[in-house]
């Protein structure tokens, strides 16, 4: 009898957890920590010069903020999803719109608090800026050209969050001088994601090869930036570990995203653009690993390793 009574409750719990996982885009959550790792590596010039607990706590904050963004995005898009994506958690009735809003706001606040607690005041301020970008994208800028910039700003700020952990750490040098190219990395990440977002916005409409071209341009910018950064760092053929890790990850990124983008460009429709968007979102993990690997191959591998759970979960949950 106990076994029979437990079955409906267990089934309900599984459905609830599955709905929440779809709401926060659980595969995508694993793309957030590599941004933080990249930022910390950039400021440190190699292995992150900050306690592992601070880095991990700030990475967790970035996950909470990402989950807030996807949840509030579904809250804002509930009416559109009811027409175009009725299987999503809110229009399907699995999660109420009010619950999604409350959860998103709670995650947003939690992300800022955790960032400040783990990474210090500087990280808290950057997390608050990141939270503002999220609120703007899911609010006033939704559906406007500036919305793409806001989404890109979210990713750029996420990299800056990792930079802030090191820069604001008591163990950081009192005079921190960084090469100019370091400050371009968050901008490149922001532009790349802005292009991917532009392409994603046209996923449910009529085929638009021009939108796919924007995504291709973002990938080209990212690849060129890694090559330029490698030249700035002075990576040469004798730097075997760096060439293998950074070069291998860069080739993986270009091949992975390029394959789906070429397919979408040749036949632009939701069933081809959607996978291209997903590949570009998950591919950011590999891009972060390539950039990190230019300075420290070991941490480049650590950053790229997050692609394993991201891809694994993408077979069960939507990315875009």
From TrEMBL:
GO terms for molecular function: transferase activity, transferring alkyl or aryl (other than methyl) groups. Keywords: Membrane, Transmembrane, Transmembrane helix. Signal peptide: none annotated. It is a multi-pass membrane protein. One of its GO terms (cellular component) is plasma membrane. Coiled coil: none annotated. The chain crosses the membrane at residues 105-137, 180-200, 212-235, 241-258, 270-291, 297-317. It is found in: Cell membrane. InterPro entries: Prenyltransferase_related, UbiA_prenyltransferase, UbiA_sf. This is 4-hydroxybenzoate polyprenyltransferase. It comes from Haloferax volcanii (strain ATCC 29605 / DSM 3757 / JCM 8879 / NBRC 14742 / NCIMB 2012 / VKM B-1768 / DS2).
């Amino acid at each position: 009898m106990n076994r029979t009574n437990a079955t409906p409750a267990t089934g309900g719990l599984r459905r609830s957890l599955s709905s929440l996982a779809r709401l926060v885009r659980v595969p995508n959550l694993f793309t957030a920590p590599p941004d933080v790792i990249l930022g910390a590596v950039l400021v440190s010039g190699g292995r992150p010069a900050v306690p592992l607990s601070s880095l991990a706590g700030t990475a967790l904050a970035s996950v909470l903020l990402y989950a807030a963004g996807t949840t509030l995005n579904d809250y804002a898009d509930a009416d559109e999803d009811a027409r175009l994506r009725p299987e999503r958690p809110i229009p399907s009735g699995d999660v109420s719109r009010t619950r999604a809003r409350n959860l998103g706001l709670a995650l947003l606040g939690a992300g800022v608090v955790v960032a400040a607690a783990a990474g210090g005041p500087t990280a808290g301020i950057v997390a608050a800026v990141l939270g503002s970008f999220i609120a703007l994208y899911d609010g006033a800028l939704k559906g406007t050209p500036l919305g793409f910039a806001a989404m890109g700003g979210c990713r750029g700020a996420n990299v800056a969050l990792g930079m802030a952990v090191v820069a604001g750490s008591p163990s950081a040098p009192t005079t921190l001088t960084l090469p100019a190219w370091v400050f371009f990395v968050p901008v490149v990440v922001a532009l790349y994601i802005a292009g991917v977002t532009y392409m994603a916005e046209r996923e449910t409409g009529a085929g638009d090869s021009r939108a796919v071209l924007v995504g291709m341009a973002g990938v080209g910018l990212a690849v060129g930036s890694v090559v330029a950064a490698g030249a700035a760092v002075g990576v040469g053929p004798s730097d075997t570990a760096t060439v293998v890790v950074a070069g291998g990850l860069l080739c993986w990124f270009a091949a992975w995203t390029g394959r789906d983008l070429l397919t979408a460009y040749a036949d632009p429709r939701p069933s081809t653009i959607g996978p291209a968007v997903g590949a570009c979102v998950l591919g950011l993990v590999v891009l972060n690993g390539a950039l990190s690997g230019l300075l420290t191959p070991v941490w480049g591998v650590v950053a790229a390793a997050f692609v394993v759970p991201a891809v694994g979960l993408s077979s069960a949950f939507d990315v875009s």
